[in-house]
Fold this protein.
Amino acid sequence: MNEILEEMGKKAAIAKQDMIRLNTNQKNHALRQAAAALMAAASEILEANQTDVENGRKNGMKKSLIDRLSLTEDRIRDMADGILNVAALQDPIGEVLDMSKRPNGMIIGKRRVPLGVIGMIYEARPNVTSDAFALCFKSGNVVILKGGSDAIYSNRAIVKVVRKALEAAKINPDCIQLIESTDRNVTAEFMKMNEYIDLLIPRGSAGLIKATMENSTIPVIETGTGNCHVYVDKNADFDMAVKIIVNAKTQRISVCNTCESLVIHKSILSEFLPMLTAALQEQGVEIRADKECMKICPELKEASEEDFYTEYLDYIISVKTVGSLDEAIEHINKHNTKHSETIVTKDYHNANRFLDEVDAACVYVNASTRFTDGNEFGFGAEIGISTQKLHARGPMGLRELTTCKYVIYGDGQIRE
Amino acid sequence: MNEILEEMGKKAAIAKQDMIRLNTNQKNHALRQAAAALMAAASEILEANQTDVENGRKNGMKKSLIDRLSLTEDRIRDMADGILNVAALQDPIGEVLDMSKRPNGMIIGKRRVPLGVIGMIYEARPNVTSDAFALCFKSGNVVILKGGSDAIYSNRAIVKVVRKALEAAKINPDCIQLIESTDRNVTAEFMKMNEYIDLLIPRGSAGLIKATMENSTIPVIETGTGNCHVYVDKNADFDMAVKIIVNAKTQRISVCNTCESLVIHKSILSEFLPMLTAALQEQGVEIRADKECMKICPELKEASEEDFYTEYLDYIISVKTVGSLDEAIEHINKHNTKHSETIVTKDYHNANRFLDEVDAACVYVNASTRFTDGNEFGFGAEIGISTQKLHARGPMGLRELTTCKYVIYGDGQIRE
C-alpha cells in the first residue's frame, strides 16, 4: 500500500479508539468550536477556494461545476450552520436496544456503537467536506476524505481549520484526515484499504458511484441514482396528478429524487395526457412517449426502450402507458433504480398494492418523490440516499453511520 | 451467464413477487406442511443420503465429515422440528418502525420487508438445506441453495419434498431452488448473479467463507470465523475464570464461539497460571504460551506470533501475558476476528472499559463466549453469526434477513 495511505490508516486506527472514549458533550463542544473556527477563518478559506476556481476556469470547467465549487462568505456560514445543526441532533451512540435478562441470569443488550473509520469519496463540492466531518464525528466515527482534485485547495483549507479546532478542544485531530494526493492510483488504493476502513461512501455523479462500487473491496453504500416514477392510476385525481408530476419533475431538475418517468393507465390517457402535456410543456419539459400516447398527442417525441432506463437530470421525461396496475408495477420494478416511486390514486386497494409490491427505498401514495430527503423525513441531516437493501435504505442519517455490538453482563455463567 | 442459473434467477424473481403477497398464516401453514412432508418422506430421504454417504466413503471422506453428512430418522425429525420452531416464531415482515406525521401532513413509516432473493452456499450438512429454507421462507425471501457436492443426493431429495409440500399448499415452489450442478464454474457464476440475488450467505469452513468474500460481487455476510479470547483481569475471581475458560474452550471444540486464546494479567500469573494449566491439561488441552508464562510453567510449549492469530478448532489454546488492561484490549483488537470476547473481573471500571473498547460482535463480562448463539440469545433460530459490522452483527435471526422500505401516505403534498 502507498506509504502515505498506510500512515493515515494507522493514525485513523488510533483516533478510532480515542473517539470511543468521548461523550456527547465533548463531541458537541468540538463541533461548535469547529463551526466557529470556520467562520473565523473565512478569508483564508475563500482565498484557497479562489485558487481552485481559477484553476477550474483555466482547465475549462463547466459553468455549473464552477458554481458548485465556488465558496462565498454566505456558503461558509451555511457550512458552519450545518455543523451546528448536527451538534444539536440526538447522539445515536450508546443507545441500547432489546435489553433483556436471559433465563440463566445473563443480561444481554444490543448497544449502538460507531462503525469505526468511514471513507468518503466525492467531487467538487467543498461543503461536503465539513458536512461529512460533522456527521461522522457526531456518530463517533473517524473520517478519511478524498475530495475531487478540483477542490483540493479549498478542502485542504477547511480540513486544516477543523483539525486545529479539534486540537484546541483536546481531541485527536486525526479523526478527520484528507487525502491530498490527486493521483488516480492513490484513489484506487484507497478503495482497497479494508484493513483500516469499515465503510466507503461515494457521493456525486453516477459515474463516481459506479466506479466505487466496481473497484472497492471495502463495503460500499450505493447512493443516489434515481430513475423515479409517478404512476397515474385509473382512479386518480387529475389535478393532483398534474401538480405532483410538475413538482416531482421540475422543482429541482438535477437531483436524484426528481421524477424521470411517468406511467399512465390506458383508460385515462385520452383525457389526462393533453392536460399533462400542456402543463409540462409550459415548464419547458420535453416528453418522450410510447406509441399509445402518440396516438393521442402525435406531436410528442417517441421514447426508445433506453429512455425508460434513463435518469435525465434534465428537462426531459419519458411516458409509458399500461393496461393495469400489475403492468405498472412490473414496468417500474424492471426500470427503476430502487429509489422513490409514487402512485396517484383514489383507490384504497391499488394504493396498498403499490406500497407492497413496488421495490424501492421509498414508496409514496399521492405525494411528490421530491420528499425523499433526510431533512424532509425529519432526520435533521443526511449523508446520502441509499438505493441498496443492506445496512441502510433510503435517506441516511446519523443512525445509518452506526453498527451494534451485543454487550453481555454475566456473573460466572457457563454453557451446559 | 449459465443458462440454468439464468432460468433459476428468472423464476426466483417471479417467486419473490408471489412471496410478498403471502400473509403470516399462509407462510406458517406451508412450513408445517413442509415439516410433515419431510417426516413422511423419511425413507426416501434416507435412501438418497445413503448414496451420498457411500460415495463419500469411496472418495475417502474424513470420518468427522461422514458423520456430518449422515442422516438418520432422528436427524430428519430434528430437521422437521426445526421447521416447526421457525413456524412458531414471530413474523418480522410488516412491522412498521418510527411512523410519524410530518408537519405537511404526510405520514411516513419504515416498514420491514423481505430482502428478496437470498443465496446460500454451504458444505456437507444436509440439515442446512431445510434450516435455510425455513428461515428464508418465514422472512418472506426466496432462497437459492448451493450445497456441497458431497450431499447432492440428500439435498435433492429434501428440496423435492419441500417443493411438493409448497405446491400442495398452493405456493410457488420456486421460492426454494437448488443448484444441482456440482461444477465449480457454476458456483463461481452463482456468486456473480447480482441481477437476481440480493444477499449471499456462506455457511461452513473458513476457506468457503473466504472464497465467497473474495469472489462474490453480490453483497455477502461474513459469518463464523472465531478467534475468541478470555481476558483474566488482575481482580478476577480465579475459580470463576477457570470455570469459564474450561467451558469456553472445551464444551464444544469445533465451533466458532469457542475460546482460542487467553490473555492474563501479569500480576496474577504466578498464582493463577498453575491452577489454570492443571484444569486445561485435565481436559487434554495443549497450551501454547508466551515467555512470561514459561518462566512460571517451563513445561509449556512456546507460542509463535502466528498462534495468536489461529482459530484452532482443536484441543489447543494460546496464552498471552499483559501488563495492563490497555495492553489486553490492544492485543485482542489486533488478533481477534471480531466475534466474541470475555473479561473475567471484579472491577467495575475495567468491566465497562472492556465492553466499550473491545471491538467485537459480542463482548462479555464474566460469562463464557459459548453463549454467542441465536438460541442462547433468545432469537429462536439462527442463520449464522455475522462478524462484520454492516447490516447484521452477531447471531443473525429472522430480522437480519429483512430490509426496510419507507412508506409515505400523502394527500397531494408537493415540495415547496
